[in-house]
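Give me structure tokens for this 327-residue protein.
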Amino acid sequence: MIDKPDVDESLLAAEVAAAWAVDIANIVFMPVGLDGHAWAYRVDTSDGGSYFLKVRLGEFTRAAVLLPGFLRAQGVSQVVAPIDLPDGGASRAFGDYRLLLYPFHDGGSLWGRGFTDRQWIEYGEFLGRLHAVTPSADLAAVLPVETYRSSAGERLRALGGQAAASEALGAFWDRYGAALHRLSVTVADLASRVPRTQHVICHADIHPGNLIASGDGDLHVVDWDAPILAPRERDLLFVYSQDFGDHPINAHRAELFRRGYGPLEPDRALLSYYRSERHLDDVTAFLRGILSPGASPESRANDLYWLTRIAETVAAPGYAAQSFPDR
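Here you go.
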């Protein structure tokens, strides 16, 4: 998020120092991510080390806390897992917030610069290994399971009237409101027709913005806040859709990805459902952010940029019938 959380950063630094037994030299807010209830800080220590601190309003899910460490123990080395507290567990309370501390990886996300050929192969290897892991009984008990019952359509209907009447969104809604309501109908229709297939562990937000690397270096996968047991297309959406990252897949990149992942024949009906549902979910998140009375002008401008980008995609002719690139 662009706007900082309502916390005293000196008290936050003291809490982190006490909880994880680190000597903090500096704590710096990082305006990254689009989750309206989570914020990020870089924590630098006096011995030259760095950590990534995630601050969430309310609780992290049990799956978000437990799954990354479990996956690393299964040999999925790209996973960035939270650091355990000295007295056990990983999550720390801080007023109304919860804290998780992670290793910090330099290099930045791959959203803007894209993957090298070697990284496309590793992207495939990573997802192939992830989707092959069998969850433990404890994890299976806390991982959400795909139901194909999205609440995004209801959220859109609840927010549409506010958007149409607001100064910030009135013109936008006049132009795109009808297309967004059609998208809601499309999601419901696709959900009624998708095949029920085998469920695997899915990251559920595995776009290039959540992959970090320096140059041609190894990938580090972050933001395990919403894992789910679902068809593998829940993750493959971010590989095969053209909507995520500035350097999307083409035939050459698809071959590299498949070299890492293994034999692959994604179901196009599932890809279409997940693409449409993700767009609808993102639309409601950005509408809510813009309509929030506490949002800064910079935050509203950022949300409106991404909202408009999605709306233009959704309103384009042939959106519902998009053909995904060769697999």
